[in-house]
Amino acid sequence: MKQGDIIIYGCVIIGAGVGLTLDNSFPGVLIGLGAGYLLKTFFRKEE
C-alpha cells in the first residue's frame, strides 16, 4: 500500500468518526475523502 493511499484512508476514517458524532456519517466521509486527496497532493514527493 502506498503512503498516499494511507493518508486518504486515514482522513476518510477520521471524517466518518466526526460525521458519526454529528449523526451524519456520509457527509463526513466525503469531506474526509476530499481532505485526504488535498493532503496527498500537498505531501507528494517531487520526482
From TrEMBL:
Residues spanning the membrane: 6-39
Keywords from the UniProt entry: Membrane, Transmembrane, Transmembrane helix
Domain of life: Bacteria
Keyword Transmembrane helix recorded: yes
UniProt-recorded name of the protein: Molecular chaperone DnaJ
Organism: Solibacillus palustris
Organism lineage string: Bacteria, Bacillati, Bacillota, Bacilli, Bacillales
